[in-house]
From TrEMBL:
The keyword rRNA-binding does not apply. It comes from Haemophilus paraphrohaemolyticus. Residues 167-219 form the Cell division protein FtsZ C-terminal domain. InterPro entries: FtsZ_C (IPR024757), Tub_FtsZ_C (IPR008280), Tubulin/FtsZ-like_C (IPR037103). One of its GO terms (molecular function) is GTP binding. It holds the Pfam family FtsZ_C. This is Cell division protein FtsZ C-terminal domain-containing protein. Keywords: GTP-binding, Nucleotide-binding.
Amino acid sequence: MFATIFEEQNDYFGSLIIKDEFGNKVVNNLASPIGNVDFNILKLEEVTDLSDNVITFVIADNLTEAEWAKIRSATSSSIFVIGCTSPVQEPQADSSFICETSPELCIQTLISMMKLIGGDGLVMTDFTDIRHVLIECGQQNHVIYIESTHPEEAIERVLKQLSSKSIALDQVKGILLNIVIGEDFEFSNIHTIIEGVTAEVSETTSVIFGTTFDVNKQGQELDLNMIVSY
């Protein structure tokens, strides 16, 4: 899907908007570009016309209604806000708010989404699927991040974190799962993880997964970044 989009864009196909120190802390830990993706990085006060965007990320630990209105009016693209909840009560069209207060988890989430969108992995993920899970499946999104060396252990840790966040499995409407692996990782273990997660949620839950590579991972070492929508 994005092959065509990349060809149509003269410079950037998306923007990364950051607010204050929280946004700076996240973006300072990013390598650019990530995977096959490049973004125009802007401070919130620099946002004007973003009509050429296909996708927009926002990193902020809070947004006022006026700030959100400024971003939303600047672009008709899909917007993914990482770090805070929506400043307005009404559902926002083509927008997703991923509530996570930890800058470290925001960094992991942003990198994970950029790599999935940029096609940097063994199992590819289409942007329409990502959009479906994060925007269409639910109004609330939370992040789960674990490290493991065994698929069964990874599943157990994921379920434990879901429980600690008081997220009822039968209320989960969508899951976006990125499995970060090394070159020697056994492909069958990917299926073990996916089957283990899907077995615990409703049959109607949309589970979208992809893999991205980390050259520092050895054997069956893995990171698992999951965004849960409900």
